[in-house]
Model the fold of this input.
Amino acid sequence: MSHGSEAVLLCEVGPRDGLQNESRIVSVDDKVRFIELLVAAGLREIEVTSFVSPKWVPQLADAEAVLSRIPRSDSVCFSALVPNEKGLERALRCGVRKVSVFTAASEGFARKNINATIAESITRFAPVVAHAHAAGAVVRGYVSCIVACPFDGAIAPHAVREVCAQLIDIGVDELDLGDTIGVAHADDIARVLDACATLRPVSELVLHLHDTHHRALACAQRALALGVRRFDASAAGIGGCPYAPGASGNVATEKLSDLCVAEGYSTSIDRIALDAAARFIIGALSTARGPE
Ligand code: HMG
Ligand code: MG
Done:
């Protein structure tokens, strides 16, 4: 941990983005232990699960069981994905205080991932955001495929901006930009940030990088230089999206934390404890139940 320098917030998405794409289903006990180890490693925001249809993502069908067993703490935000009102109701019943709606800058991915057009997704999310706020919850809005889509190909920065603007219109508190299939080069990230910078300060945007082609760190380095101070990452670099063919894991939290420190920023992370969390989840995956 470094002190006295500008802070970067790393949001750990391993328990959600990581485990949603593993063919093996990790037990509730091991998910809870993984989350406890992440808390011990200093992560202050952890996306712990999704309240999506269990038919679409069976790996996270145990969302309620996981949430009921995580020791709550005022210093750690436990967030979860919600695709619709049903998901929000489930999340709120579990005491979740930050939820994420998720759409895309490409029609092809929106259709495959949430069975909706982009416009339908915004219409679907508007009451979700309003009800979340009425219940006192904070809302993140993900935009996937900010550079390219596995179905539609290259995505223009203005298309990303347009979806971000619509999410802001319905009231999301935080925008999260996802390079879902990990194809971005640093210049692509710079163009997307430039397009979105008139909507929200770059320091408030979240960047969600997958590391398919091992360029995520170069993208993060450029993003840091351009003012991004919030990133998603997953311990041990696990995961991907089951509805994005070719997507591999998120950038590893260990590597991203090291990059931030090397670039002169502070994070809240204890690296030795983070390694323990990463080792634990790799071990848990190796012994988890296989696909049925
Ligand atoms: P649908 O089939 O169009 O929805 O799915 P539906 O409303 O017709 O419901 C179908 C069934 O699911 C019904 O059950 C519903 O009750 C049930 P049945 O009557 O057939 O028994 N259902 C639910 N059950 C529990 N919780 C819910 C829920 N909603 C419906 N919330 C839907 C539409 C959006 C539900 C579906 O497409 C879905 O769940 N999609 C989620 C896919 C997903 O989780 N993808 C991965 C996360 S996104 C990602 O990884 C990208 C990201 O990391 C950023 C990046 O990398 O770019 C965030
Ligand atoms: Mg992702």
